[in-house]
Amino acid sequence: MAVPPVAAVVGAAAALLSITSFAPQIVKIWKEKDASSVSLRTYVVTVTGFACWIVYGILIKAWPVIASNIACLLMSGAVLLMKWRFDRRA
Questions:
Q1: Given CB 3.0 to 4.6 Å as the disulfide criterion, which of 14, 15, 31, 73 pairs with 50?
Q2: Whole-prediction pTM value?
Q3: Separation CA 80–CA 35 (nearest Å)
Q4: Is residue 27 part of a domain?
């Protein structure tokens, strides 16, 4: 089934905004080497959600869902990894 052009544009915009929404957090953590203000639970749930979206995309064979959620998984995963690296509380 073909996707209407307007839907494709809206979908592409949504994917790009979702992917880039993690960039400011990544830059802030990297510059400050501090992730204490980041919620570990939130990012664990977020990463898990993107993993589920990828599986869903595979099941329905929707490459835009798969590709955009892989990108989101990588970005949110980067935040999660930096949380563990820069938030080592004794």
A1: 73
A2: 0.86
A3: 9
A4: yes
Query: Can you give the residue range of the structural domain that contains 26?
Result: 18-86
As given in the structure block, the two tokens for residue 85 are: 């690296």
CA 29 to chain centre: 16
Tokens representing 6 are 């307007």
Amino acid at 68: S
Cα distance between residue 8 and residue 1, in whole Å? 13
pLDDT digits (tens, 9 = 90+) for 62-71: 999 999 999 9
Structure tokens at 50: 């993107």
Residue 12 lies in a domain: no
Whether 74 contacts 20, CB under 8 Å:
no
In whole angstroms, what is the distance from residue 34 CA to residue 79 CA?
Answer: 11
Type of residue at 16:
L
Q: Which CATH number fits the domain that encloses residue 25?
A: 1.20.1280.290
